Amino acid sequence: MPLLTEQYNVEQKHNKCCIIVPMTERRQKTDVRQRQIVSAARKLIVKYGSEHVTVRRVAKEIGVSEGAIYRHFKSKRDVLSLLIDDVENTLIGDIEDYYKPGTNVLDALEKVVLSDVSSVEQRKGVSFQVIAEIVSLGDKKLSNKAYDVINEYIKHIKSILSEGVKSGIVRQDIDLDAAASLLFSIIQGLINIWALSRYSFDLEQRYLPLWNLFRDSIIKR
Hints:
Elements: H1 2-17, H2 23-48, H3 55-62, H4 66-70, H5 76-98, H6 105-122, H7 126-136, H8 140-166, H9 176-196, H10 203-218
Helix pairs in contact: 2-3, 2-5, 2-7, 5-6, 5-7, 5-8, 6-7, 6-10, 7-8, 8-9, 9-10
């Protein structure tokens, strides 16, 4: 009998200390923490530059220990890798939100790019500046990943322009690859100048004349 009582007490203690957390709840908590980490890394990149982003600084920004970061990421590279994924989702998501088959191609493209520029200005160069900063680190793996994101963005722009050619809005004689790359370069170059000027001018106002110049060069007369 004492043996049974002893077993019951052990089981009771075991039940008190071991709380089973549902898998979905754990996954949700992991997702939330990873989003916090990525958001902190993004903020630090814009504020200090990618070379100054460390696990210690990310942990301090969120208000957790370094160990809490390492539970989700093995290294700074892993944090930046997920950040690149987030940038890609943002950029491609904007295109898919604004461009639907049958819509006016140039109007849709203007909204896509203006949305990117507007969000950049509100959040201090987030997506495009993050790409530039990560590339500047010289990490081959991260640079290749950033390159893939840029190519995917340009590919989507090219696809929209191609639809414009089919619908008779965009000139048939333009080089679609060159036009899509040029538009990306206009955005990226302007944001770099804006960041170097310490955000001293209205990005959206400076962009509009550039967009009009680009639009006039590709529209079918």
